[in-house]
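Folds abound. A case:
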Amino acid sequence: MSEIITILALTIASGSCIFLGGLLASFEHIRPNWLEREFRHFLIALGGGILLGAVAVVLVPEGIARMQDSLFAIPLFLSGGCTFFLIERALGLKRRESPQFMGMILDYLPEAIALGGMVAVNSPIAPLLALLIGLQNLPEGFNSYRELIKHDRGNRRKILRVMAALVIIGPVAGLTGFFFLSDLPTILGAIMLFASGGIVYLIFQDVAPQARLRRHWAPPLGAVVGFSVALFSEMLVTA
């Protein structure tokens, strides 16, 4: 029972950052205008940096370890990137591209499943993964709101309701990982590697290009800050 409570607490806390990010983004018109643009691009880069850090310091190392250093880790990683590519291409053909929003959901779901599985096997890395999920959800929620508000012509309440509903994904996915992956460390590792491949694809396809702002050099530093946050968190937990 205590493990279930832990999963619920970790996933709800990390998922709530989606809504919090959207709520912060709903306060429009940061002044002056150049600051508003730089702040948004900085947050895009920050989220990308944290995503990259989560892949580098948690998902890939833990995934490979749970697969006992098997070379099958490579095709799993590649298949994740190819799958995310096919999903995005299908949405693009239907003119329903929302890269920030889609990326947030696609990386949040497998990460939450992995989190539940890690709690089941009493991994000390589980709180770190939850922290990184929350940290990445905050800027992703912020940027997703700004992206969706353009499509829905300013329907602020509808977007915030959708983002609040997304919080439920975390506990459901986490409990799924807990009940079905506790005795299947190889499958847990495969999910982590699959998610990693998809996340890396999204970083370079959608996040990184949006982070750049012509004649402004500060926003990409957000990626450096984000990766540093992930690295610092990993060192803090494993010290």
Residues 33-66 form the longest helix (34 residues). Residues 23 and 160 are 7 Å apart (CA to CA). The chain has a mean pLDDT of 76.
